[in-house]
Specification:
The chain is mainly α. The chain has one domain (about 5-110). The protein has 5 helices and no strands. Helix 1 (about 5-20) runs antiparallel to helix 2 (about 25-40), helix 2 runs antiparallel to helix 3 (about 45-60) and helix 3 (about 45-60) packs antiparallel against helix 4 (about 65-80).
Length: about 120
């Protein structure tokens, strides 16, 4: 099963906690997007991230985002297991499922460290 380096996993958990606790709705999305980039190699963390994105979309009454997250929840684990998660993809509904994006340098460094 694919894994992520311990430092990337720790940062993932920090980003998920920040997404829950920050009062600014846009910052919540930013934290979830960072967590998404870090989580993609791990089927469980990747799926958990999309569930959090779905939950936030529902709370914000964003139907388009919520529907997009339902699709992503379904494909997250199989995509991670197959190594098909697109690099740098932020996981939002306005981004294509297979669209690669530049990975922020700080996150890339965490993902490149040996486990």
């Amino acid at each position: 099963m694919p894994t992520i380096p311990p430092a990337a996993r720790a940062r993932y958990h920090e980003e998920m906690l920040a997404a829950k606790t920050t009062p600014d709705p846009e910052q919540r999305w930013t934290h979830l997007e960072c967590a998404h980039i870090l989580s993609q190699p791990d089927p469980w963390l990747h799926t958990r991230n999309h569930i959090a994105m779905f939950t936030l979309a529902v709370r914000q009454r964003d139907r388009r985002e919520a529907l997009g997250q339902v699709v992503r929840i379904i494909v997250a684990a199989p995509g991670s297991l197959a190594g098909l998660a697109p690099e740098g993809n932020t996981g939002r509904a306005h981004v294509g499922l297979r669209q690669t994006m530049p990975t922020p340098p700080d996150l890339d460094a965490l993902l490149q460290t040996a486990a």
